[in-house]
Every structure is written in C-alpha cells, then in structure tokens.
Fold this sequence. Notes:
The protein has helices spanning 17-22, 25-33, 89-95, 135-154, 188-199, and strands at 7-13, 37-41, 58-62, 72-76, 82-85, 98-99, 102-103, 110-114, 119-124, 159-164, 202-204, 235-240, 247-252, 264-268. By secondary structure, it is an alpha+beta fold. It has one domain: Endonuclease/exonuclease/phosphatase (Deoxyribonuclease I, Chain A), CATH 3.60.10.10. Strand 8 (110-114) and strand 9 form a beta hairpin. It starts with 6 loop residues before the first strand and ends with a strand.
Amino acid sequence: MLKLITMNIYSWNVNGIRAVINKGAFTEFMSAHQPDILCIQEIKARKEQVDIHLDNYHQYWTSATKAGYSGTAILSKVPAIQVLSNIPPNIASQFELSDNYGDTNSEGRVTAAEFENFWVVSVYTPNSKGKLERLDLRTKQWDKAFLAYMKDLEKTKPVIFCGDLNVAHKEIDLARPDDNHKSHGFTDEERAGFDTIISTGFLDTFRLFNDKGENYTWWTAWSNARARNVGWRIDYVIASQSLQKSIVSASIHPNQMGSDHCPVSIEIK
C-alpha cells in the first residue's frame, strides 16, 4: 500500500515578529509544530531587521512602507516557483485601495507564493477600526479587490489563502455576538464579505471538520479574556473547493502563546 504523503500549512498573526522571537515563542512554535509552510501576518519589520535563523526554510517577506507596521511573510521548506507581493496594480487601481489613513497596497498585506500544486497566500486584512472609520474601504474596496485577486490566481491552480481576515463570520465565531453586531469585525457588511468568499467557491477549512463554538483565534488583552476564552475566530485557512478531498484536517492551536492571536493550520495530502 502506498503511504499517504501530507504536508501542513500554518498561519499565525504574530503581532510583531521581533517581539515573538524575543519572547522565545517563535522558536518554541517552530520546534513543536515544524510547519512545512508558515504564513505570518503583522510582522511589523523588514527582513534585515530580524535576527531569525531558519536554515531549512526559504523566506518571502512583504513589508509595509511605514516602519513597524503591518506586513506579511511566507516561510517554506520547499522553494516557491514565484512570489508576488501586494495586490497587482491593475486590480488595485480598479478598486482604489486608498483612504485618509493611507494606501492599503503599501502596507504589505499580501504575499503570494506559487508551489507545484497550489498557490499559498498570506493575508492581513485591514481592520475597520473602532469607530468603523475604515469600514467602507474595507468592505467596498479591499474585500472586492482581494477576492478578485484570489480568483485570478485560481485560474492557474488552486489557492489556499491564510491569515487574519479581521472578521468573525457567524455568531458561533465569537463569544459574545449579541454585544457586537455593530462592532468592527462583526458588522453585517464585513460578514457579507465573508459570505461572498464562500459563495464564489472557497472553503472555510476549519468548518469542514468542526461545527462547534468556543473555538477562537484572537483575544483582547483586557479582563483576562484569553484565560476565560472570551474570544473571536478571525484567523482562517481558506481553500479552493477543488482541494476539499485533499484536506485531511484543520486545527486551531490556542495553547501557543506569544501573540494575542494563536496559530491555525491544515494538513493536506
């Protein structure tokens, strides 16, 4: 009998790669999980600013123009065929990805790496902000531009996009839905954007295996929320529908400390 060959793909919003390294949490995570591919968000640094030694990994960074802000990266044991940073100019210009806060396409929010059988994309979706100042930019421009980009990539091979999408899709995805229907990350507009992702043929991989509540990926620093598991599920691994039969498992790793987010992962054959 042939042995089933699988690989694991992880995603983690580290909320500052230098901070998570200095805490020792990054080394701990890499040793414990040994991801084949790791998508990182909120790196808040340029590659040359980071003392990171990973001999077995190829590193692909997309840093923000603004120092110490945003940014995404992909680390992979297998070299990528090609790597693309940010949303392509033709799509970005079509959707006008700027507002009073800046140009989202200069914030290092997307890194896409092509591998033999699929694309892997690390994405850090803009936050709509506490008073919803960036809600229109997020829902009317960014969400549409990013989805258009993913569908373009999908024309060549299946896509797996991973990251902090800054939205809890359904009431089951946060601890206190009744209190948050008008809060950033759970507005009707943001949730509708996630609905559109699913309706165009992408899969929320975690929900293929787990339909239970109390599975969260982010916790506020206030009121001991993480210890009490008062959280939100806003970090995802989303995959093209054509990959469904290849996805063996999907997991959340709440015991991994070092950031206000925890890692999420899939295993794929």
